[in-house]
Design goal:
Number of strands: 0
CATH superfamily of the largest domain: Tetracycline Repressor, domain 2
Order of helices and strands: HHHHHHHHHH
Structural class: mainly alpha
Radius of gyration: 19 Å
Shape: elongated
InterPro entries: Homeodomain-like_sf, HTH-type_TetR-like_transc_reg, HTH_TetR, KstR2_TetR_C, Tet_transcr_reg_TetR-rel_C_sf
Protein name: TetR/AcrR family transcriptional regulator
Pfam families: TetR_C_24 (PF17932), TetR_N (PF00440)
Organism: Tumebacillus amylolyticus
Number of helices: 10
Keywords: DNA-binding
Strand content: under 5%
């Protein structure tokens, strides 16, 4: 088994454990066993359980972005790309819920770590740039009127995040697939007469 494969197996096993049992009740021995490696192997890749948690979050955010970009690249028009982006983001909601079920105390510690904050900042900026790029494509192709792509991207990102946040607070387990279409339509045409 290749080193990267072991690392990925450990991350996947840890994500399942943290998502179902929480941080404190997840034991490294059990994570290692589920990943098919020795407990010591976990510590070859991750200095402690806290670091493992941070890396699980990073791993899933990175995978999310890769899959998201692949999904949007299937489409040619900016509108279709934007709808694909929103649909993908909203469809990932059940996975986001699992990640957010992790011990909130542990997640708040993540924000105190400068390198983790920098990683999250870069990931968020990359997402924003992706949406801005789609909007710029729409402007260049004449699909969208000329607007500041970053301002428009912030509105799109905020609408998607707001939908996810609302669903989490209301304990909704899945977001309606049609909401992405409606959201993009509303963002593109507004709600004025």
């Amino acid at each position: 088994m290749e080193g990267m494969e072991k690392r990925e197996l450990i991350l996947q096993a840890a994500a399942r454990a943290f998502g179902t049992k929480g941080f404190h009740d997840s034991k490294v021995e059990k994570i290692a066993a589920e990943a098919g490696v020795a407990k010591g192997t976990v510590y070859l890749y991750f200095k402690d359980k806290q670091t493992l948690l941070y890396e699980v979050l990073h791993y899933y955010r990175q995978k999310y972005v890769e899959d998201l970009y692949a999904e949007t690249e299937k489409h040619e028009s900016a509108r279709a790309k934007l709808v694909a982006y929103a649909k993908f983001h909203l469809a990932q909601f059940p996975n986001m819920i699992k990640i957010h079920k992790l011990n909130m105390e542990q997640l708040s510690q993540l924000h105190k770590d400068e390198s983790s904050r920098e990683r999250m900042r870069e990931e968020q900026n990359n997402n924003l740039r992706k949406i801005a790029g789609i909007i710029q494509l729409g402007i260049d192709q004449g699909e969208f009127r000329t607007v500041d792509p970053i301002d428009a991207a912030l509105l799109c990102w905020g609408a998607m995040q707001g939908s996810v946040h609302w669903a989490m607070i209301n304990e909704i387990e899945e977001i309606d697939d049609g909401s992405a279409e409606r959201m993009v339509e509303l963002l593109m045409h507004g709600f004025g007469k």
